[in-house]
Amino acid sequence: MLDANRDADLRQQAFAFLRDVTHSLGDVLPWDLLTRGFAYQGQPVILIGQTGIWKPRQLDLPISITTAPPNPGRPVPYDDGLDAAGCLRYRYRGTDPHHPDNAGLRETMRRGIPLIYFFGIAKGQYLATWPVYVVGDDPAALAFKVAVDDRVIGIDEAVAVSDLQRDARREYVTGVTVRRLHQQSFRVRVLRAYRDQCAICRLRHAELLDAAHILPDKDPRGEPVIQNGLALCKIHHAAFDRHILGIRPDLVVEVRRDILAEVDGPMLRYGLQEMDGRRLHLPARVADRPAPEFVEARYARFRQAG
Is the pLDDT at 72 greater than 70, yes or no? Predict the structure, then answer.
């Protein structure tokens, strides 16, 4: 059995590795980087594997759990939504609660050992979150309950806190994290569908692009799916959100009449007025294009606002 201090040290090194690579590469990490891992005492430690619950050979217990990226035409293999208690649901491997992978996660819960959560957003691309803890086990639902903790204080509490305070902190951090993961996933998938260019002006600088919702997320139909998204540069995103421009049901840009009549500098002329009547640049896959019912509903709001 691996010494507890060595186990803790290896996990801290894994967290430090992820902190460094996300700082240099951004939040989205490629599969090949994670399968190369990092060196620990001269040996590579692999952080992710084909199984959702992953244990590298240097450890006795799992180091990571993974939600597979969505695959068009197939149901999502894991439900990573929040439960009523504010925890993340993570499905068992298979249906046997005593499978070694499930037993390993259960043991991390018993010992309070931190893990890494990899959230798949597209084939070969993952968002990493750490530290996460298994905080509950629901054999009837074939699922664990997982909570995300604060990176600064979650692994080694600097100040003693009650279980209630710790649980409240984790519930808050988990909720914020799940929303962030879905927002980032939505952005990456939409920009990929639109080949990293604005659907209106075709600007290609990814750092200046957003994934805009056609129907806002407060709308019951405003889910973070590609068919409800548009890749827009920041100026056209702001103009779309504020009903300065709209998208007609035939997927042609319409600029508000008072904006067309306004006289100002070149940004107004070339950035907005000349977009009037321009047809949207659409994803190659028909399944990724805007849902007609969403576009019609949003255009109706644009007309009403104008």
Answer: no
Q: How many CA atoms lie within 13 A of 165 on its CB side?
A: 7
Per-residue exposure over 161-175, b if at least 16 CB sit within 10 Å of its own CB, e if not: eeeeebbebbbebbe
Tell me if residue 92 falls in helix, strand or coil: coil
Residue extents of the structural domains in the chain: 4-191, 196-305
Residue 234 buriedness (CB in 10 A; 0-12 / 13-18 / 19+) = middle
Which residue from 220, 150, 211 is spatially nearest to 186, judged by alpha carbons?
211
CA distance 149 to 171: 8
Report whether 271 contacts 278 (CB < 8 A).
Answer: no
| Interval 165-176 mean pLDDT | 86
- Are 272 and 259 contacting, i.e. CB atoms less than 8 angstroms apart? yes
Q: Token pair of 95, please? A: 């249906």
**Alpha-carbon span 57 to 157, nearest angstrom:** 28
Q: Alpha-carbon distance 174 to 177, whole Å?
A: 5
Asked whether the beta carbons of 78 and 67 are under 8 A apart, the reply is: yes
* Confidence (pTM): 0.76
CB 116 within 8 A of CB 64: yes
Beta strand spans in the chain (E): 28-30, 38-40, 43-45, 53-54, 64-67, 88-91, 115-122, 125-138, 143-148, 209-213, 229-233, 245-247, 253-255
Residue with tokens 């499930």: 102
More confident residue, 160 or 277: 277
The predicted-structure confidence for 238-293, as pLDDT tens digits, reads as follows 999 999 999 999 999 999 999 999 998 888 999 999 999 999 999 999 999 999 99
Q: Could you give the percent of the chain with pLDDT greater than 90?
A: 69
Q: Look up residue 154 and give its two tokens.
A: 């979650």
What's the CA gap between 92 and 78, in Å, rounded?
Answer: 9
